[in-house]
Amino acid sequence: MSDNWKRYIGAENSHLVDFGLPDCDAFIHQSIKNDLTRLVEAAAEADLPMTIVSSFRSFDQQLKIWNEKWQGHRAILSRHGRRLNVDQLSNIEKYKAISLWSALPGLSRHHWGTDLDIFSKQAITDGHRVELTPEEFSNNGVCYHLNNWLNDNLQKFGFFRPYRIYQQGVSCEPWHISHISTAGKMLNDFPYEQCQSWLAKSHILDKTFILDHFEHYKEKYFLNICDSE
Ligand SMILES: [Zn+2]
């Protein structure tokens, strides 16, 4: 096997390209560029311009986020957005709370360049500070109309929302979109063994605990996604 497996876990990014649309900075998998361009242009034509607030994330970036949450240096939130006190949580409670909103390094779909977090461009222009909360995408939220448009149109452009509804794994994340065919292929070919060894060599905190829960994470969070309908 070549080093190709590294691109599944955010350890390599030579398959990625700059999206290149004005005001829509993103580093993406080259196979999604055409569909994403069509999607962004169609949203703009519907008077609901969207922008990308997060695209590719490397293993090291994800590791930093995870470890900061693990240490309590970055907020850990409950499913309803309440801030939790890390000192009062056991390892298993901490692991579950972090996994609601942040992926285990190596098992983030943001490593692939096929998955993006999107937001209303208008809301940002109007001074809204992006939080990525379910409220922003529900009734009266700044992304409410964009969300409705996505419900009706996302599929037509070859995208879906893997965290559309909460299924006891990752929280409901209506802002997270994924390219159906490219991400589907990445998931099918995913190199679990290499991912596990990469984690074992990393500086993840409480490594033994984390490695003991790798299978659990894979089943409960990584593979537990909504279907593309
Ligand atoms: Zn996301």
The CATH architecture category equals 2-Layer Sandwich
For the secondary structure, the number of strands is: 8
Count of individual domains? 1
User: CATH fold name, please?
Assistant: Muramoyl-pentapeptide Carboxypeptidase, domain 2
Low-confidence stretches: none
Widest sheet, order of strands: 3-6-8-7
Overall mean confidence score, pLDDT? 95
Task: Kindly report how far apart the N and C termini lie.
Answer: 33 Å
Structural class: alpha+beta
Beta fraction: 5-15%
> Compounds present?
zinc ion
Radius of gyration: 17 Å
Structural description of this entry:
There is one protein chain. This protein is an alpha+beta fold and 229 residues long. It has one domain: 2-Layer Sandwich (Muramoyl-pentapeptide Carboxypeptidase, domain 2). The chain is 39% helix and 12% strand. It contains ten helices and eight strands. A four-stranded antiparallel sheet has the order 3-6-8-7. A two-stranded antiparallel ribbon has the order 1-2. A two-stranded antiparallel ribbon has the order 4-5. A hairpin with an 8-residue loop joins strand 1 and strand 2. The model has no long low-confidence stretch (mean pLDDT 95). Zinc ion binds next to strand 6.
